[in-house]
C-alpha cells in the first residue's frame, strides 16, 4: 500500500505512460494562452424614468414598447397593450399628434384581428376614437393607410370584424370628412359593402349613421369655385407667360395637405364628387333602396324616420341636380327604376308616410319619364 | 358636431351591450346560405365548387377581400404573421376556384404577377411562396400563358430565398415533364426552350444559373435531348462565373469515379427488376395498416421503408452520374470548342485548381472521343506531371484519355518520356513508379506507335523489381505489347507465337470461302444447353480461373499477328472483329473511324432503349443459327461421333454442338470473346494445357485483367479509367481508420441478426433489475425480494433463535 507520504515523494519521478500517436506534453513550457469571456449586461433590467417626452403606463411601459407589444402573438398581451396605450394617450392627449407615425401602423392593423374578444374590440374602438382626436393636418399623412386597413376589414369574412370596421369608418368619416373625400377607394368600397349580403342589418346601431356620415362627406356644396389661370408656355424659348401662384392654390383649400397630390397617392382630386357622376349615384341609389324600403316598412317606432327621410332627400337631390347626367343614357329613368321598391313601400305604408311621401315626391311624380 | 355626439352615444350603447354580443346571424336581411362554412374557407370552397353559378356572390366577397389586401400590401409591404396567414388562405381559396370564374381569375393572376414583379423581393417569404403556388395551380388549369409565368419565375430567382428557388426550379421542370409526357406539345416545348436559352445568356448570373440547371435537368430527363441544348450548355463552359462553368463541365464529365459508371448501370437494371417484384412503399403501408400490430411487424415495416428510400436515393444519384457521351458527341464544332477551352485554361491563371482539373478533363475527353488535334495540350500537361502534384493520378488519366491513334507519335513520345523521367525512377516511391508505368501502359495501348524499343526495354526491366506492385505493372506493359507489337520487346519477353488455327481460316483456297458450321470458340461453353444462362456463366468463370499460365514469359517464339488477323473468325459477332482489327492494325484509320462511329451509335441506342438492342442481338443469334443450318449436312458425321470423353481432343465438335443446340446468350458471347482474347495473349496450347489445374498466380491475373479491359473498352466509350492508373497489384495495408470504417459499414444492420446482443432500442444497456425499477410499483409488488420467498419452518426457527440470542447479548450462531 502506498502511503500518502510515499506518494508525495514519488511525485517527481512518476513514470510517464507513452501511447502511440499521442504527443507528450513538455513540462518546461509555460501555458500563456488567455481565455476571455464576454460579459453581457442585461439592459432589460435598466431603470426607466418617466419624463415628459417618454411617459410610462401604469405598468411602467413606454409608448414604444406598447406599440411593439401590439404585434405580439398572444391576444392577452395585445389586450394589455391596448389598455396601456389608451391610458397613456388619455393622460397625455398632446402625444397623439406627435406619435401618430408610430401609432397608426401598429394599432390600425388590429381592426381585422379576428382573435379578439368582444370587450377587447370595444377597447380597440375606443383607442381609435382617441387616435382620431389628432388634428386634420397630422392625420392627413396617415389617413391612406388607416382607410386601407379599415376598408380591408370591411370585406373580412368574420362578422365582428366587419362590424368593428364599420364603426371605425364611421368615426373617420365624422372626424375627417375632407380627407376621406379625397380617398379614391372609399366610395366604391363602401357601396360594395352596402350591396353585399354580409352587411349589418339596417336596424343595428351604427349602420344608418355611418351611411349618413358617408353621404355628408360627399354631398359637398354645389357652388364650386373654379379659378382658372391661363398660362402660356413657350417651349422654344423656355419662357412662361402669365402668373401662377401655387401658394394660392393651397390657401383656397386649407384642409388639403401640400404633399397630397392625386398622382402620387391614391387620393382623387376633389374637384369631382362621386355625387356628380351618374354611375356612382346610380350605384348608391341601387344599394340604398332596399335599406330605405325596409326602414319605411319595418320601423314601427319611428326612430329612424328622420334618417330615412334624409336618405331619400339626398338621392332625390342628387338625381335632380345631376350636372353630368349626359354621361349616362336615361340616367333619371334608371334612378327612378332603382327606387321602385321604395315607392312600393311608401304606398303600402299608409299611416305615417307623409313625410316620406313629401320627400319622395320627385320619385312619385316623375313617373312620366 | 351634434351628429358626432349622437354617434358616440350610439357606440357607447353598443359598448354596454357589447359584452355578451353573440356572433348573431348578422345578415338577417338575407338568411345565410352556409352559416356553417362562414369561417371555414375550405368548406366554402367545396360548396362553391359544386355550384359556382349561384355562389358567385360569396366568391366575389372573398375576391374583394383579396383586392383590398393587395392594395394594403402596396402601401405597406411588411405585415405581421396573422395577416399573412389570412392572405395565404384567401389566395389558396381563390386559386382553387379560379377556373369557374375566368374573368376574376384573369384579374387575380394579373394582380399576383404585378405584385411579384414590383415588390417580389420585399414580400414575406411565405406569402411569396403561396403566390407562386397559386400561379402554378392556375397554369396547370391552363388559365395562364406559361411563357409569362416562366419569365416571372426567372425574375423571381434572383430573390435571395433558397426554398423559393428550389420550388421554382422544381415547378419549371415539372411543367416540362407535363408538356412532354401528357400534352406532347412540341411547339410549347420549343418556346420554353428558346426562353431558357435566352435566359442562359442573361447578365445576372443567378438567372443564368437557374436556366442552365433547367436545361441540364431537361437534357438528362430526355425532354430536350438534342444537339441544341447540349451546345447551349457547352457555351456556359465559358461563362464568367466559375460556378456556372463548373456545372457545365460536370454535366459533360458525368460522374467523378468513372469506374463506377458501368456498375451503376447494371445496378439500376437489377434494381428496377427487383423493384418490380418488390412492393412499393404504399403497398407496404397499407398491408401494415390492416394487420395486427406486433413489434416485429413494426420493425419490418421500418426496415422496408428504409430500404425503399435508400433505393430511390441511389436511383436519383445514379442519374446525374451518367457520363454524357451523347452530349459530347453532339457538339457542333468540337475542335473549336476544345481550342477555346484550352485557350481559357492556358490564359487564365486565376482559376482554382479544381476548376482547372475539370477543364483539363473535359479537354482530354473531347479530344479522345472526337480524335482531335490539339497538340499543345500534351505539352501543357507536362508541367503537372510530377509525383508530388495534387491529383496527379487524375491528370495522368486525362493524359491517357487525350491520346488516340491520330496524334503524331513524337508528341506522345515526349509525353511518355516526361512521365518515365518523373515517375519511373528508382528514387521515387514504388507507388509513384507503379502509377507511372500504368499511365504509360494506358497511353501506349491507345497509340502503340509512340513506343520506342529503347524505352520499352528499359521499362520492361522493372518486371523483376523487388516491389511487387512495380513489377506487376511492368509485366502488364509487357503483356500489352505481346499482343500489340512484340517486336519491340526483348526477345525473352515476346512470349510464344500463336499457332495457325486451321479452323479459323477464312478461306479454304482461292475463291473458296470457308463456311463455318459453328461459332468459333463455342467449345468453351458448357455442354448443357438447357441450363440457365446464369449457370453457364458461373461454370465458365470457374474454368477460366483454373487456367494456369505460370511460365508464359519464358517462351520465345514470335506471334504471328498478320495471320491471326486474317484468321479471325466470321461467326463471332462482327463487333468483336472490329475491335481486334483496331487492336492490331490501327494504321488504317478511315475504316476504323467509320467503325467507331458505328460503335458509338450503337451505344447511343443502348442508352436510349435496351429492348431494341436485345432484339438486335437476338437477330444476330438467329443469323448465326441460319449459318449453322446451312451446313448441317456437312457436319452430320461429326455430330454423330461426338462423345463426352473426347471433348478435349475435339473442340470443333463441341463447338458445333454448342452452337447448334442452343441459342447463345449475350453472356455466352462475352465469354467466348474473352477466351479468344486470352488465346491471343498466351497461346492456345498453353491455355488448354493449363485448364483444370486449380492454381492461379499473378501472370494469370494480368492476362485476365487485360482481357477484361479490352472487353470493356470495346463495349463503352473506349476511354481509360482511373482504376487502370491507380491499379496496385498488392493492396496497401489499411490504416486503422479504414478498418474501423469497414467494420462499421458491416455492422449497419447487425441489429437484426440473431444471436447477438441488441444495440438499439428502448431497454438496451440496462439489466432487468434496472428495468424493473422503472416499472409501476403495482406491477412488481409481488416480486419484492423476501415477500415471495417461502422459507421453511426450520429456517424461520433458526433466524428467530439468532434474533433472540442477539437480543439477550450472546453471540448468535452457536447452537
UniProtKB/TrEMBL annotation, chain A:
It is found in: Nucleus. GO terms for cellular component: nucleus. PROSITE patterns: EF_HAND_1 (PS00018). InterPro entries: ARM-like (IPR011989), ARM-type_fold (IPR016024), EF_Hand_1_Ca_BS (IPR018247), Ipi1_N (IPR024679). Its main location: nucleus. Residues 138-203 form the Pre-rRNA-processing protein Ipi1 N-terminal domain. Keywords: Nucleus. Belongs to the IPI1/TEX10 family. This is Pre-rRNA-processing protein Ipi1 N-terminal domain-containing protein. The lineage of its organism: Eukaryota, Metazoa, Ecdysozoa, Nematoda, Chromadorea.
UniProtKB/TrEMBL annotation, chain B:
Belongs to the SDA1 family. InterPro entries: ARM-type_fold (IPR016024), Sda1 (IPR027312), SDA1_C (IPR048292), SDA1_MD (IPR007949), SDA1_N (IPR012977). Its main location: nucleus. Keywords: Nucleus, Protein transport, Ribosome biogenesis, Transport. Residues 93-466 form the SDA1 N-terminal domain. One of its GO terms (biological process) is ribosomal large subunit biogenesis. Residues 306-316, 782-791 have a biased composition (Basic residues). Residues 587-746 form the SDA1 middle domain. Residues 765-808 form the SDA1 C-terminal domain. Residues 1-35, 295-320, 491-668, 752-815 are annotated as: Disordered. GO terms for cellular component: nucleolus. Transmembrane segments: none annotated. Residues 539-571, 586-636 have a biased composition (Acidic residues). This is Protein SDA1. It is found in: Nucleus, Nucleolus. Required for 60S pre-ribosomal subunits export to the cytoplasm.
Amino acid at each position: 500500500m502506498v502511503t500518502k507520504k510515499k506518494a508525495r515523494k514519488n511525485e517527481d519521478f512518476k513514470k510517464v505512460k507513452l501511447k502511440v500517436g499521442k504527443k507528450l506534453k513538455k513540462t518546461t513550457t509555460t501555458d500563456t494562452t488567455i481565455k476571455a469571456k464576454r460579459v453581457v449586461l442585461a439592459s432589460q433590467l435598466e431603470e426607466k424614468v418617466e419624463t415628459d417626452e417618454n411617459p410610462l403606463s401604469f405598468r411602467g411601459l413606454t409608448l414604444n414598447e406598447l406599440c411593439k407589444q401590439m404585434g405580439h402573438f398572444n391576444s392577452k398581451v395585445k389586450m394589455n397593450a391596448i389598455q396601456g396605450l389608451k391610458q397613456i394617450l388619455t393622460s397625455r392627449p398632446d402625444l397623439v399628434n406627435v406619435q401618430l407615425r408610430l401609432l397608426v401602423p401598429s394599432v390600425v392593423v388590429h381592426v381585422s384581428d379576428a382573435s379578439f374578444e368582444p370587450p377587447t374590440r370595444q377597447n380597440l374602438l375606443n383607442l381609435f376614437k382617441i387616435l382620431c382626436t389628432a388634428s386634420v393636418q397630422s392625420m392627413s399623412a396617415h389617413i391612406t393607410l388607416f382607410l386601407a386597413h379599415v376598408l380591408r376589414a370591411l370585406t373580412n369574412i368574420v362578422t365582428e370584424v366587419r362590424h368593428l370596421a364599420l364603426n371605425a369608418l364611421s368615426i373617420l368619416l365624422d372626424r375627417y370628412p375632407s380627407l376621406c373625400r379625397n380617398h379614391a377607394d372609399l366610395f366604391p368600397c363602401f357601396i360594395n359593402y352596402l350591396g353585399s349580403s354580409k352587411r349589418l342589418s339596417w336596424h343595428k346601431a351604427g349602420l344608418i349613421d355611418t351611411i349618413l356620415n358617408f353621404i355628408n362627406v360627399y354631398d359637398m356644396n354645389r357652388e364650386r369655385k373654379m379659378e382658372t389661370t391661363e398660362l402660356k408656355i413657350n417651349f422654344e424659348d423656355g419662357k412662361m407667360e402669365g402668373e401662377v401662384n401655387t401658394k394660392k392654390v393651397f390657401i383656397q383649400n386649407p384642409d388639403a395637405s401640400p404633399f397630397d397630390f392625386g398622382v402620387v397617392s391614391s387620393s382623387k382630386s376633389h374637384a369631382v364628387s362621386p355625387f356628380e357622376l351618374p354611375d356612382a349615384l346610380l350605384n348608391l341609389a341601387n344599394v340604398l333602396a332596399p335599406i330605405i324600403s325596409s326602414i319605411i316598412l319595418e320601423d314601427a317606432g319611428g326612430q329612424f324616420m328622420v334618417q330615412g327621410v334624409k336618405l331619400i332627400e339626398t338621392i332625390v337631390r342628387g338625381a335632380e341636380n345631376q350636372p353630368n347626367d349626359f354621361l349616362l343614357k336615361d340616367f333619371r329613368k334608371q334612378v327612378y327604376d332603382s327606387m321602385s321598391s321604395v315607392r312600393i313601400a311608401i304606398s303600402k305604408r299608409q299611416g305615417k308616410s307623409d313625410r316620406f311621401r313629401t320627400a319622395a315626391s320627385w320619385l312619385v311624380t316623375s313617373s312620366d319619364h | 358636431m351634434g351628429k358626432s355626439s349622437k354617434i358616440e352615444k350610439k357606440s357607447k350603447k353598443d359598448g354596454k351591450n357589447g359584452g355578451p354580443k353573440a356572433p348573431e346571424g348578422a345578415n338577417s336581411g338575407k338568411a345565410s346560405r352556409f352559416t356553417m362554412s362562414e369561417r371555414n374557407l375550405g368548406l366554402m370552397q367545396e360548396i362553391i365548387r359544386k355550384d359556382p353559378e349561384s355562389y358567385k356572390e360569396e366568391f366575389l366577397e372573398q375576391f374583394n377581400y383579396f383586392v383590398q389586401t393587395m392594395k394594403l400590401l402596396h402601401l405597406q409591404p411588411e405585415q405581421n404573421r396573422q395577416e399573412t396567414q389570412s392572405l395565404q388562405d384567401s389566395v389558396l381559396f381563390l386559386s382553387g376556384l379560379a377556373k369557374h370564374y375566368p374573368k376574376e381569375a384573369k384579374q387575380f393572376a394579373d394582380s399576383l404577377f404585378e405584385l411579384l414583379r414590383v415588390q417580389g423581393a420585399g414580400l414575406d417569404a411565405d406569402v411569396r411562396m403561396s403566390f407562386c403556388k397559386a400561379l402554378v395551380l392556375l397554369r396547370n388549369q391552363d388559365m395562364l400563358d406559361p411563357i409569362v409565368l416562366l419569365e416571372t419565375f426567372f425574375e423571381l430567382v434572383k430573390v435571395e430565398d433558397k426554398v423559393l428557388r428550389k420550388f421554382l426550379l422544381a415547378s419549371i421542370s415539372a411543367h416540362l415533364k407535363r408538356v412532354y409526357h401528357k400534352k406532347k406539345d412540341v411547339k410549347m416545348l420549343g418556346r420554353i426552350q428558346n426562353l431558357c436559352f435566352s435566359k442562359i445568356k442573361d447578365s445576372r448570373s443567378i438567372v443564368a444559373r437557374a436556366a442552365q440547371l433547367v436545361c441540364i435537368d431537361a437534357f438528362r430527363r430526355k425532354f430536350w435531348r438534342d444537339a441544341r441544348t447540349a451546345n447551349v450548355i457547352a457555351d456556359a463552359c465559358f461563362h464568367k462565373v466559375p460556378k456556372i462553368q463548373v456545372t457545365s463541365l460536370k454535366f459533360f464529365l458525368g460522374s467523378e469515379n468513372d469506374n463506377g459508371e458501368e456498375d451503376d448501370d447494371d445496378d439500376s437494371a437489377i434494381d428496377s427488376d427487383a423493384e418490380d417484384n418488390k412492393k412499393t412503399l404504399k403497398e407496404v403501408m397499407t398491408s401494415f395498416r390492416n394487420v395486427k400490430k406486433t413489434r416485429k411487424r413494426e420493425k419490418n415495416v421500418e426496415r422496408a421503408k428504409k430500404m425503399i428510400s435508400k433505393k430511390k436515393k441511389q436511383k436519383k444519384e445514379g442519374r446525374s452520374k451518367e457520363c454524357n457521351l451523347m452530349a459530347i458527341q453532339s457538339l457542333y464544332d468540337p475542335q473549336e470548342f476544345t481550342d477555346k477551352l484550352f485557350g481559357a485554361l492556358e490564359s487564365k491563371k486565376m482559376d482554382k485548381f479544381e476548376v482547372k482539373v475539370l477543364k483539363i478533363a473535359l479537354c482530354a475527353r473531347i479530344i479522345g472521343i472526337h480524335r482531335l488535334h490539339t497538340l499543345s495540350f500534351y505539352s501543357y500537361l507536362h508541367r503537372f506531371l510530377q509525383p508530388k502534384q495534387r491529383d496527379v493520378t487524375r491528370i495522368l488519366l486525362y493524359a491517357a484519355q487525350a491520346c488516340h491513334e491520330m496524334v503524331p507519335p513524337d508528341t506522345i513520345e515526349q509525353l511518355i518520356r516526361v512521365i518515365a523521367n518523373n515517375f519511373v525512377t528508382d528514387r521515387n516511391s514504388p507507388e509513384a513508379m507503379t502509377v507511372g508505368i500504368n499511365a504509360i501502359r494506358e497511353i501506349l495501348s491507345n497509340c502503340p506507335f509512340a513506343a520506342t524499343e529503347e524505352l520499352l526495354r528499359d521499362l520492361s526491366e522493372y518486371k523483376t523489381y523487388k516491389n511487387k506492385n512495380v513489377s506487376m505493372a511492368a509485366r502488364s506493359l509487357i503483356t500489352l505489347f505481346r499482343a500489340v507489337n512484340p517486336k519491340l520487346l526483348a526477345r525473352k519477353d515476346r512470349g510464344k507465337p500463336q499457332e495457325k488455327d486451321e479452323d479459323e481460316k477464312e478461306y479454304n483456297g482461292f475463291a473458296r470461302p470457308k463456311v463455318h458450321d459453328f461459332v468459333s470458340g463455342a467449345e468453351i461453353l458448357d455442354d448443357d444447353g438447357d441450363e440457365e444462362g446464369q449457370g453457364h456463366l458461373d461454370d465458365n468463370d470457374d474454368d477460366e480461373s483454373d487456367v494456369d499460365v505460370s511460365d508464359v514469359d519464358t517462351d520465345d517464339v514470335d506471334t504471328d499477328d498478320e495471320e491471326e488477323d486474317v484468321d479471325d473468325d466470321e461467326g463471332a459477332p462482327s463487333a468483336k472483329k472490329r475491335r481486334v482489327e483496331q487492336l492490331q492494325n490501327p494504321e488504317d484509320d478511315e475504316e476504323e473511324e467509320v467503325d467507331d462511329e458505328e460503335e458509338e451509335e450503337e451505344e447511343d441506342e443502348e442508352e436510349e432503349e435496351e429492348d431494341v438492342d436485345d432484339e438486335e442481338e437476338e437477330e444476330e443469334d438467329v443469323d448465326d443459327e441460319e449459318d449453322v443450318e446451312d451446313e448441317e449436312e456437312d457436319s452430320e458425321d461429326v455430330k454423330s461421333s461426338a462423345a463426352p470423353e473426347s471433348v478435349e481432343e475435339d473442340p470443333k465438335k463441341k463447338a458445333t454442338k454448342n452452337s447448334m443446340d442452343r441459342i447463345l446468350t449475350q453472356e455466352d458471347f462475352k465469354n467466348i470473346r474473352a477466351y479468344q482474347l486470352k488465346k491471343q495473349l498466351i497461346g492456345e496450347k498453353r491455355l488448354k494445357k493449363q485448364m483444370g489445374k486449380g492454381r492461379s498466380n499473378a501472370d494469370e491475373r494480368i492476362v485476365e485483367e487485360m482481357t477484361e479491359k479490352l472487353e470493356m473498352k470495346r463495349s463503352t466509350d473506349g476511354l481509360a479509367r482511373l482504376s487502370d492508373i491507380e491499379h496496385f497489384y498488392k493492396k496497401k495495408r489499411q490504416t486503422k481508420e479504414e478498418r474501423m470504417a469497414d467494420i462499421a459499414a458491416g455492422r449497419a444492420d447487425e441489429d437484426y441478426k440473431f444471436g447477438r446482443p441488441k444495440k438499439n432500442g428502448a431497454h438496451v444497456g440496462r439489466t432487468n433489475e434496472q428495468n424493473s425499477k422503472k416499472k409501476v410499483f403495482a406491477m412488481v409488488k409481488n416480486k419484492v425480494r423476501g415477500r415471495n420467498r417461502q422459507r421453511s419452518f426450520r429456517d424461520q426457527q433458526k433466524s428467530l433463535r439468532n434474533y433472540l440470542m442477539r437480543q439477550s447479548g450472546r453471540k448468535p450462531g452457536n447452537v
